[in-house]
# Entry
Amino acid sequence: MSEVNAPARRYHSPRRKEQAAATRDAVLAAARELFVGEGYRATTVAGIARRAGVAVDTIYAAIGRKPDLMREVVETAISGTGQAVPAEQRDYVIRLREADGAARKISIYAHALAGIQPRLAPVYLALRDAAGTDPDCAALWTGISERRAATMRKFVADLAATGELRTDRPAAELADAVWSMNGPEYWVLLVDQRGWSPGQFAEWLADAWCRLLLSGDRPSELSGR
# Structure
């Protein structure tokens, strides 16, 4: 029986997938180093390729142009993995939504931020600087900022569901206040410039948010440990 018209077999190679993932990781690591160290404008795809030890065409095929690289560097810094992860699927968000009590939810989030910001803040600030001159980066900066604001509205709504959220201020205003304090700029001011430890930052943020956002008695135990 002739096999001329037989459908082609799909070839799946775990090793090939591992190599592709390793190449992607190397490219994003190189892009992060150069974006943070040299700035977005001074960084070229060719320079990233040299740093990663790959061909320029490999970068275009695996990830895309320089704006695509910046987007992936930011998204992976947020997720802490090699891929972007939607907020609803992140471990700390799941734990936060399952937690009982507003103070516990706040503590989980504050301690999660202390784990995220060391890798996110340098990239985020590089993106902010690039947004002043590059339209693609400006669009990415605006999009991520708006997405973060929307996430904070959900966070405040989750706190409100406990019945412990203060009601003398609009929920949208409270969400904006959280948005301003969870930004990498706040981390840089206190940790990088004032020398706070990540643990000190997390405890401060949890305490400050409990005092700022909640009504009634303030819980005395805010530790995420």
